[in-house]
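Re: that backbone. Tokens:
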């Protein structure tokens, strides 16, 4: 029967990685199964792709960790064909959706942005489930627990004392005397280091930077009336006052970077395994093919122990069907953490899902749960790309990719290797803006950030384009809390075949007066207003995307519907109450109509939270650790 343990965790990403480590630390024997390998440990190129923050784009196209999904945004072929990023798969137009098959999951190639969701995102789950442990003020403690903040001084330091006085004065001036301490909700002893980019990097382009900030200040004062997040919070989107008040304004984006290096679940898992070697087994290159049941109780996992089995792997094997399958048994529970695409796929392959869909494919039904694979959600994101009058000096001396074998590292990589500083120690974003698309919203719904490079969205070869042009600047407009609901369905009963994925964006292109579409439109118009100010000052030569041909609101709406993409897939195994027939999970992550089975990953949310989903997943991983340990004891 192979390995036996207390818990089997399937997937090592933001949900499964920290969860497995926490359970092992609590004294349980845990088997963590990851379908990908560990490219960081396999070669120097793999190490650089993982550790150097600026290489996050290139890492999505690094074949040893790259997993390629091809998705639809629309059911209608004519509408889908309008996307300039389209690729043909099996004779139909799709859009490339990069994921990572590696230890750490997509945290091995994400942009490391670590921004908290608003408290209202958690309050919604508390409200629909009746479980007050999900309330925002309680969920905040999970972030404080995992964070090791490097950009706010820890309590007890001289700087913290000074900032405490400043914060108190600022709070009292606003009539808010609910001041806590200088940490303002941050944590300082957790496994997830947060830092901000070195401002000296941006100062290599003082003329452009100063001009950009002046234009931003004027635009924010005209549009919002304030810089809002302000000096008291150091423009920190994770300051507890920011989370509570949900202001708009300029922000400095926190990153999961320690001493210039990417940090994530991979390092946490390795630390725990070194300290508790008998409790944590890391099994890479192990594709889970089926959950094993005795009746309706999950008792183990069937898997294939071989690299390059899954169909999203560009190095995939030609005939996985010939490979032997093994089994691992769990004395307590099986916890599925494969993400919004693969978790519903594994559940359905195992007989947990919509009865009609399972019977169509001849899969015996263990639990009829029609919500499995439904409710697929994502952000909408588009870019406004402009040509600047001059190249960015901060890009000089860099190729923005690891050296080829036998080549010497470029100037910027040499600096990073020396002391973990410079442009390569950042993710490339210069500035961030949080904004409401309409004034009547309770919480801001737009996150707009600028980066010196050419970026129009994800398409094969995009990472080389980012570095190709030295004078392009992209405003990325991200729309939070979208209303799209797509699906993930089985393409076959082969566990290595990628599922069918359709986001049905903007109501499948048919929703009249779409509020999401109008929100993105407002974000694009705001970015354009910034560019108009920069053009008046001679900084910008021309707008390249969407370009002068898109002048009217209707033309911009069409551009957005054609080109919008996402990279935070979620919500396909949603949490809900007992009366919601589409709720796959209860508030303790348990799969309904089964025993010994939970899901902990991006798929659990009923609505997509916040702006950048990884922080929310880290937080639910901590919460799941608590409830699983509590249930075990």
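Recovered sequence:
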């Amino acid at each position: 029967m192979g390995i036996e343990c207390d818990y089997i965790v399937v997937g090592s990403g933001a949900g499964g990685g920290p969860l497995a480590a926490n359970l092992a630390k609590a004294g349980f024997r845990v088997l963590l199964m990851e379908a990908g390998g560990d490219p960081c440990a396999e070669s120097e190129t793999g190490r650089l792709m993982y550790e150097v923050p600026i290489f996050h784009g290139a890492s999505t196209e690094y074949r040893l960790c790259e997993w390629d999904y091809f998705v639809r945004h629309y059911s209608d072929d004519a509408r889908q064909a309008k996307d300039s990023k389209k690729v043909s798969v099996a004779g139909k137009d799709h859009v490339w959706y990069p994921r990572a098959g590696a230890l750490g999951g997509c945290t091995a190639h994400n942009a490391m942005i670590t921004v908290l969701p608003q408290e209202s995102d958690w309050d919604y789950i508390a409200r629909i489930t009746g479980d007050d442990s999900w309330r925002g003020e309680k969920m905040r403690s999970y972030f404080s627990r995992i964070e090791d903040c490097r950009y706010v001084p820890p309590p007890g330091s001289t700087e913290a004392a000074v900032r405490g006085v400043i914060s108190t004065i600022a709070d009292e001036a606003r009539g808010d005397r609910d001041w806590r301490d200088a940490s303002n909700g941050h944590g300082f002893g957790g496994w997830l280091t947060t830092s901000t980019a070195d401002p000296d990097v941006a100062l290599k382009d003082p003329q452009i930077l100063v001009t950009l900030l002046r234009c931003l200040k004027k635009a924010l004062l005209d549009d919002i009336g304030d810089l809002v997040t302000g000096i008291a919070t150091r423009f920190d989107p994770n300051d507890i006052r920011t989370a509570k008040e949900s202001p708009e304004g300029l922000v400095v984006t926190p990153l999961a970077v320690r001493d210039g290096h990417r940090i994530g679940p991979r390092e946490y898992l390795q630390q725990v395994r070194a300290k508790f070697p008998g409790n944590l087994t890391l099994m890479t290159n192990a594709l889970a093919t089926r959950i094993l049941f005795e009746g309706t109780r999950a008792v183990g996992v069937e898997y294939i122990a071989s690299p390059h089995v899954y169909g999203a792997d560009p190095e995939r094997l030609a005939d996985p069907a010939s490979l032997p399958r093994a089994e691992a048994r769990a004395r307590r529970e099986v916890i599925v953490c494969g993400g919004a695409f693969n978790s519903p796929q594994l559940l359905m392959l195992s007989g947990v899902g919509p009865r009609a869909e399972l019977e169509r494919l001849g899969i015996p039904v263990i639990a009829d749960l029609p919500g499995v694979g439904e409710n697929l959600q994502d952000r909408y994101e588009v870019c406004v790309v402009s040509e600047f009058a001059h190249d960015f000096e901060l890009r000089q001396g860099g190729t923005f990719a690891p050296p080829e074998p036998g080549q010497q590292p470029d100037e910027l990589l040499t600096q990073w290797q020396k002391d973990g500083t410079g442009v390569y120690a950042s993710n490339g974003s210069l500035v961030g803006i949080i904004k409401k698309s309409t004034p009547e919203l309770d919480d801001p719904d737009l996150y707009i950030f600028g980066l010196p490079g050419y970026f129009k969205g994800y398409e094969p070869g995009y990472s080389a384009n980012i570095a190709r042009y030295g004078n392009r600047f992209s405003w990325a407009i991200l729309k939070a809390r979208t209303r799209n609901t797509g699906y993930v369905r089985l393409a076959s009963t082969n566990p290595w075949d990628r599922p069918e994925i359709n986001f049905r964006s903007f109501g499948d292109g048919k929703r009249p007066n779409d509020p999401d579409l109008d929100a993105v439109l407002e974000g694009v118009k705001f970015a354009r207003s910034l560019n108009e100010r920069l053009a008046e000052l001679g900084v910008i030569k021309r707008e390249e995307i969407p370009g002068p041909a898109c002048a009217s609101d209707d033309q911009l709406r069409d551009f957005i519907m054609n080109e919008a993409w996402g990279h935070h897939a979620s919500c396909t195994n949603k949490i809900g109450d007992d009366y919601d027939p589409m709720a796959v999970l209860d508030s303790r992550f348990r799969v309904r109509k089964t025993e010994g089975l939970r899901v902990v990953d991006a798929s659990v949310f009923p609505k997509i939270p916040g702006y950048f989903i990884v922080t929310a997943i880290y937080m639910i991983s901590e919460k799941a650790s608590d409830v699983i340990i509590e249930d075990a004891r």
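The chain has a mean pLDDT of 91. The longest helix spans residues 515-536.
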